[in-house]
Amino acid sequence: KHVLPPPLYIPEFEITEDFGLRQKNHIVFLGNLLQHKNVLQLLEAIKHLKEYNLTIIGSGKLESDISDYIEENDLHQRVKLAGFLTDRLITEVFLSADIFCAPSTYEPFGLVYIEALAHGLPVIGYGPSINEIEDHMGILCGYQLENYDANSIKTALIETSKLKWDRRLLHDYVKIRYSPYHSSKKFAKVIIDES
């Protein structure tokens, strides 16, 4: 009956103007390298977008398949398979990226999308999760995938790249909407309303 956002601790970090320090069209993925995370379709999309770079953070059963795909398609100059990274290094990668893309074919809530938005990144991913986040935040946060094939992901990357994103706004909205204070306030309201 009620969907309450999870409370998140959003660390402090500086979201600054680009000043040419970020790579242009730098995409980042963070997650377990499992079939439903759809990383091979993301790689297929990147293969056809010659001006895009991708950093894949995570490990899992498909790691060797992903590594083989990168090698077989000569993508090692544009795709980095980073493996497991510390929170500090993840923050560095997120702050150097332009877009977060996790084209999962399903996602229970999509906490990783919130983490990316907290770093000021627009997100591309599982439609229902992105829709729920946008409804809760009240602003456009990225691109909701309806199909999960490489061509749909490619289109999403191109369309999301065309928009001018206010990274500070994305960060600030997440900090407010998903703070422990805001979540506990909503929880208290539900309890009072139900009493």
Give a brief description.
The protein is α/β, with parallel strands linked by helices.
How is the topology of this model organized?
Elements: E1 26-30, H1 39-48, E2 53-57, H2 63-72, E3 79-83, H3 87-96, E4 99-102, H4 111-118, E5 123-126, H5 127-137, E6 142-145, H6 150-162, H7 167-177, H8 180-194
Parallel strand pairs: 1-2, 1-4, 2-3, 4-5, 5-6
Helix pairs in contact: 1-6
Molecular structure report:
The protein is an alpha/beta fold and 195 residues long. Helices cover 45% and strands 14% of the residues. It has one domain (26-194): Glycogen Phosphorylase B (Rossmann fold, 3-Layer(aba) Sandwich), CATH 3.40.50.2000. Strand 2, helix 2 (63-72) and strand 3 form a beta-alpha-beta unit. The two termini are 15 Å apart. The model has no long low-confidence stretch (mean pLDDT 89).
Entry keywords:
single chain, 195 residues, alpha/beta, Rossmann fold, 6 strands
What structural class do helix, strand and pairing data support? alpha/beta
CATH topology: Rossmann fold
CATH C-level label: Alpha Beta
Query: How would you write the strand order of the largest sheet?
Result: 3-2-1-4-5-6
For the record, give the distance between the C-alpha atoms at the N and C termini, rounded to a whole number: 15 Å
